[in-house]
Amino acid sequence: MPVVKWAISNIVLPKKWNRQEMQKNDLAELTASIRARGQLVPLQVRMTDKPTKVELVEGRRRLAVLQDLGQSHALVSIVNAKDDIEAFLLSLVTNLNRKNNTSYEIAEGFGFLVEAGMSSEEIAKSCGKTPGYVSQHLAVLKADQRLQMALQKGKVNVSLFRYFTKLDREDDKDKKFYDKMVDLVLKGNVTAQDIGEKIGVYKDKQAATDKSKKTKPKKKAGPKVKVLDYSDPVITKNARPVSKDKALKYLEHYAKVVESTSLKTKREYYRGVLLGLELSVGLAEED
Fold this sequence. Notes:
Distance between the termini: 121 Å
Number of helices: 13
Strand content: 5-15%
Number of domains: 3
Structural class: alpha/beta
CATH architecture of the largest domain: Alpha-Beta Complex
Radius of gyration: 38 Å
CATH class of the largest domain: Alpha Beta
Largest sheet: 5 strands, mixed
Number of strands: 5
CATH topology of the largest domain: Conserved hypothetical protein from pyrococcus furiosus pfu- 392566-001, ParB domain
Strand order of the largest sheet: 1-5-3-4-2
Shape: rod-shaped
């Protein structure tokens, strides 16, 4: 690609960047270099619908330094980027391996490409990274805001975030455990591997509980039993004495009937039996 000089006033910035705002102290070394030796590396730009205007694709820091130094023109290399997504991708690929490019900035860049319709596999292939690398950074964008802030401040490593994706924050139990793990991370003195092991143990226990619930045979509902209230005056009035043998047969029969019913029904049944025996057998003398 040919390198040409272009008026800095005709270089416009893209709507979306893959890096956060620059700090003045980030530019000190570059400023000293350009002041001493001039611009050695051209900016990458792409053409716009206006012949004199070009859009910056890569070289934001160099452009900022040239502007601060009062330069009127910059060396540019015009690249072929058919749309905003391709231009952003070119900029992202260029910046991926720079030491001052943060994990959070990379995550945001991948997130923008996902929103634009690219899959993790497509992003990985385009950027020369593994799908795992892309997924690991995309996990950052799904995490608790406190963890994201900790990453931006350099207090946690990006490898931590993939473990948190195993928890469903919409589930009450998972959400409670998720918050517990976040608090543990923010207190410090815990590694990403420690968190991974704790979440792994939690998920294993959860899976074992779910499996137990599925394999446990369901108790068949027994027949509905109408429990008589022997304290009812009408029933008491109509109660007739019967022999003990007959009473025992009734007791044995209905005990089987209520065996598979609820504990409450059983209690009511046996309470009724006792009252019934008192009325029918307990008060009747056998010959």
